[in-house]
# Entry
Amino acid sequence: MYLVKRHKGMYEVSSWGDDRYPLAVYQVGTRCSCPSYRKPCKHQRMVSKHKSLGEPLGQVYDITPANRVVALHSLLESANS
# Structure
């Protein structure tokens, strides 16, 4: 699972597993800090999806087996339930 948030004028994409801390954190602006050779990388596509949804707070994303970015659920909606 991935969480996208604004950070210092850029975006930050963090990858989460079952741990308390993120597995990896990447800064995304015009470029991404990940080691991917693909342009755009999956983190840049997540930021694009996040922007197209109106930058919802607490939105969780994932990558499908078909390599598509999907919005799973909002952490804020889960907390309010």
